[in-house]
Amino acid sequence: MFNYSRSTLALISLALIGGALAAPKKVDGYNSLGVVKGKAGGNMTLALGDSPQSLFYYGVIDNNLGLISQQLFDGLVEFNFSTYKIEPALAESWTISPDGKTYTFKLRQGVKWSDGQAFNADDVIFSYKNIIMNPEARAGDAGNFKLDGKDITIKKVDANTVQFNLPRAAPAFLLQQRYFIMPQHKLAKFSQDGGAKAADINNAWPTNVAPSEVVGTGPFKLASYTAGQKVSLVKNPNYWKVDASGTQLPYLNSLDFLIIRDPQAQVAQFLAGNLDQLNISGAQFPDLKSKEVAGAPFKVVRSTALFGSPPFLAYNFDAKDAGLSKLFGDARFRRAMQNAVDRDRIIDTVYNGLASLPGHGVAPVNTQWYTNTKAQLGKFDLAAAGKALDALGVKDTNGDGIRNVPGGKNLEFDLTYGTDSSVYPAIATILQSDFKKLGVQVNLKGVLSSKLLSTGLAGDYEAILAAFGDQPDPELRKPIWQPGGALYYWHRSTQPATDGGTPNLAKMAPWEKEIYNIFNSAATTTSASQRKALYTRWQLLFAQNLPVTPIAKPENIGAISNKYGNYIYNLGVIPGYNPVPLIYQK
Amino acid sequence: MLSYALRRILGMIPTLLLISVVCFIVIQLQPGSFLDQYLEDPRVTKETVATITRQLGLDQPLWVQYLTWIKGIVTEGNFGYSFANGRPVAELIWERLGWTVFLAVLTLMVSWLIAIPLGIYTALNRYGIGATITNFLGYISLAVPDFLVALLLIALVLSAGGTNVGGLFSPQYIGEPWSWAKVLDLLNHLWIPMIAIGLEGVAGLMRQMRASMLDVINQDYVRTARAKGLAGRAVLWRHAVRNAVNPLISLAGLSLPTLISGTIIASIVLNLPTIGPYLYDSLLNKDQYVAMTLLLFSALLLLIGNLLSDLALAWADPRIRFE
C-alpha cells in the first residue's frame, strides 16, 4: 500500500511538471463544458448582495468581499472546473513526501502582481505566517494549521519554493491550500513582520483605501469603489493564465459589481439589462424561464450542485424534555419519522422541481466520495411510519388523535426554522401537516435564518430545520459530521469537557463511536482508496442512523445574457473556483 | 428668543443621554450576537469567535461597553466603530448621508409644493368634482405602502422596456465625474423614488392642509376681514392660509427623523444608497455602535426638528412669543 501511494504521487507530480514548464498556465480541456476560443474586450456587470465590508479578504468574514476577492487573488492550487480535481495555480507543481508529512510547492515563475512587482516565495511565506495562520486575523484560518495540538510549519526553501511540515499526515491539506496569497510589499506595514500588532492586519485596506493599494495576482484589479453602489474592476495586464491558443486571459476588459440588496430588485435589474449574470433561486426560475422561452435575450442555466447547503431536519438528542430526548436519540424513531418526510413533494413545490434527492454528508454529484444511499432514504409512506411508531410503543393512548410518548405525554415538539428564507417556511409547513396526519404534533417556531446555527449550538430547540454545505472532501466538514465535533449540535452531550479535548465517548451510541473513529482514521490515511472505503462506511452509517434527516439537494440556477460566451455556472464564493476569466463578450 | 433657543438646546443633553441608555438596552435585549451570522462559514472556528469577541470588546461587561462608547463621543467625538466594516461609525454614516439628505429634502419639497395647493383647493371646493377625485386619489395613496408603489413602478418601467429600474444612476455613470449626461440619467432615475416615497407624504399633508384650512375659513377673523371688504384673494392668502399652515410647520419638524428610518423598505426595493437600509442591517446583525449611533442621531434630529418648528412657528404666528 505504501509503495503504491508513493508511485502514484510520483506520477502525479511528474505529469504536473511536464505540463507546466512554461510560466503562464494554459487553461484548456473544457470543450465538454462548451468553452471555445473567445475574443478580448468588453465588460460584464454582476450583482453583489451588499457593500463589501472591507477590501482585505482576511480582515472580515464577508461573502460579498469574497466574490470580489475571487477576481483579485489566487491561491497555490485551484479546482478543475469540470472534475473538481486540484490543479496547479500559483504553485506550478508540488511534491508530497511518502509519509504524507512534507508538502513542497514549486512556485510558478514570472508571475507578477497587478502593480508589476514580482511574485515570489516571500509573498507566500508572508501570507501564511502573518495572515492565514495569524489567530488574530478575523477571516484567517489558524485553526487549520494545528494538528493534534501541534503546529504546521512553513519555510522558504528558495526564491521559488516553499515547504510545509505537518506533525502527521493530513490528506486534505492539499485541497485546503486554495488560500488567497497576498502581496507582502503592500501589507507588510500592517503585519507583525512589519512591527504592527497581530490584530492590526484586520485594519488593512478599509473600503476607502486607494484602489492602487489593493494589489493581487488575480485576473482583475480594483479600479474604484463607490460606497453602497458599485465596485469596478479592470483587467490585470499581468495575469498568468492564457487560453488554449495562447491568448492572455481574462478576455473581458472590465468587470463591475452593482450593489443590489433585494433579490427582486436584482431580477428587475437583470431583466432591464443592467446586470449580465445572476444566480437565482428555484422560486424565481419559472418566471425567468418563461421569459427566455418567449425570446428574451438571456438563458437560464441549471446545473447539479457540488457545493451548497442541503437542508436537513435535526432532532435534539439532548432535548430538555426527558421523554423527547430519549425518543429523539433512538435511531428507530428517526427512521420511522423519515417515512413521513415527503421529499418528492418538497422538491416539486418548494424547489419547483429544481432539486434532487440528497446524499448523506456528500453531494451525489461528488464522484470522488459519494456513495449511493438512495435506497436508505425510504419512501414517503405514512402508514409504514405509523406502524414503526406503534412498534416503538408510541401510540395514541388517550384517544385525542395525538400519539403519546411512552409514559403518557403527547408527542408534541417545536420545530425551529428560518422565517426569512425562501424555502424553510414552506418545508416546515409541509412537515408539520404530514406529521400531524401521523399523529405527531409539531409547533412551528420561527427565527431569523442567521440565528439558526447559534440556536442549534446553544441546544435551545427540540427539532430544527437547517442546512450545512457539502464540500469536495468530507474531511473539510469534520466539525459537522464527526460526533463530538464543534458543529455536531444535535447531540451536544458528546462535546468534550474542555475546548479541544477528547469528546465524551461515553455519551455516544455505538454507531456514533464508529463514525468518530472513521473520521479520525480518514484524517490521517494517505491512501485514497482506504479513505474512500472509510467514508463509504460513514455514509452508510449516516443513512442508516440519521443523525440528521437530509431533505433535498437544491440545484444551481444561473441566468446569463446572450451577449456572453463560455459561461460556466458561477458557484459563488468558492476559493479556487473562478471560471470568469474564460467568459468573453460576443 | 435667543435665550429660549439656548435653554432648549441645553435641555437636549440630558434627554439624549437618557435616549442613549434606552438605545443601548434595547439593542442588548435583542437575542444573539454580532458573530451569529458567521457561524455557518467553514472558515469560522470557535477560537475565531472568541478572538473576534475579544477584539470587539464584546467580552466586557455591558456597563463598561456603554461608558466607553459615551466617553468616546463626549471626549473625542468618536461614535465607536462598525464591527462589520472595522471603520469609525461617523465616517460610514457620513459616506451615506449625502444622498440621504438629497433625497429627503427633494421629496419633502416636492410633496409640500404639491400637497399645500391641493389641500387648499380641496378645502375651498369641498363638493366639487375635482376635489372629490383628488380626495379619492389621496385616500388610495395613503393606503398603499411606499414599497408597493415602488414595485409597481418598477414593473411598469420594465414592461415598457425601460432600464431605469432602481438605483439613482445607470451602471455606467456610477462613480463617473458629473456631466450633463449624468444629470439627465439621474433625473431619469429620480422620478421613481420621488413618486414612491413622496406620494404618501403628499396625501397626508394634503389631508392636513385641507382640515386646518376648513378650520380657519370659518373663524371670526376671516369673516371680519371679508366684512372689511378685503379682496377674496387677499383674505385667502394673508389671513386664512397663513394661519392654516401653522400645524404643518410643526409637522415638518417632526418629519426630520424620517431622513434615517422613514423609507427603509422603499430604499431596499429601489436600491437607493441611503442610510435606512444601513440601519436595518446594523440592527439585524447587532452591529451595535452603528445601530446606537443611528438611533441617537435620529432622536437628535427629532429634537432639532421640534426646536426648528417651534422657532418657525414663532416667526410665522405673531400670537406665539417666548418672552
Average of pLDDT of chain B: 84
Number of helices of chain B: 14
Shape assignment of chain A: globular
Radius of gyration of chain B: 24 Å
Biggest sheet features of chain A: 5 strands, mixed
Q: Describe the global form of chain B.
A: globular
Assign the CATH architecture of the largest domain in chain A.
Roll
Radius of gyration of chain A: 25 Å
Mean pLDDT of chain A: 88
Unreliable segments of 5+ consecutive residues of chain A: 1-22
Quick one: biggest sheet of chain B? none
User: What top-tier CATH class of the domain at 97-285 in chain B fits best?
Assistant: Mainly Alpha
Report the CATH topology name of the largest domain in chain A.
Dipeptide-binding Protein, domain 3
Keyword list:
heterodimer, A: 586 residues, alpha+beta, D-Maltodextrin-Binding Protein, domain 2, Dipeptide-binding Protein, domain 3, 2 domains, 27% helix, 19% strand, B: 323 residues, mainly alpha, 0% strand, globular
Topology, please?
The complex is a heterodimer of chains A (586) and B (323).
Chain A: H1 2-19, E1 25-26, E2 43-48, H2 63-72, E3 77-79, E4 86-88, E5 91-96, E6 102-107, H3 121-132, E7 146-147, E8 150-151, E9 153-158, E10 161-165, H4 173-176, H5 184-187, E11 220-226, E12 230-235, E13 241-242, E14 254-259, H6 263-271, E15 277-280, H7 285-293, E16 298-303, E17 311-315, H8 322-328, H9 331-338, H10 343-350, E18 355-356, H11 382-391, E19 412-418, H12 424-437, E20 441-447, H13 452-457, E21 463-467, H14 478-481, H15 510-524, H16 528-545, E22 549-550, E23 553-554, E24 556-561, E25 564-565, E26 584-585
Parallel strand pairs in A: 1-13, 2-14, 19-20, 19-21
Antiparallel strand pairs in A: 3-4, 5-6, 6-10, 7-8, 9-10, 11-12, 12-14, 15-24, 16-24, 17-21, 17-22, 18-23, 25-26
Chain B: H1 2-29, H2 46-56, H3 62-76, H4 89-124, H5 129-143, H6 146-159, H7 180-217, H8 220-227, H9 232-244, H10 246-254, H11 258-261, H12 264-270, H13 275-285, H14 288-316
Helix pairs in contact in B: 1-14, 4-5, 4-7, 5-7, 6-7, 6-12, 7-9, 8-9, 10-14, 12-13, 13-14
Keywords (chain B): Cell membrane, Membrane, Transmembrane, Transmembrane helix, Transport
Subcellular location (chain B): Cell membrane
Transmembrane segments (chain B): 9-29, 97-124, 136-158, 186-206, 248-269, 289-316
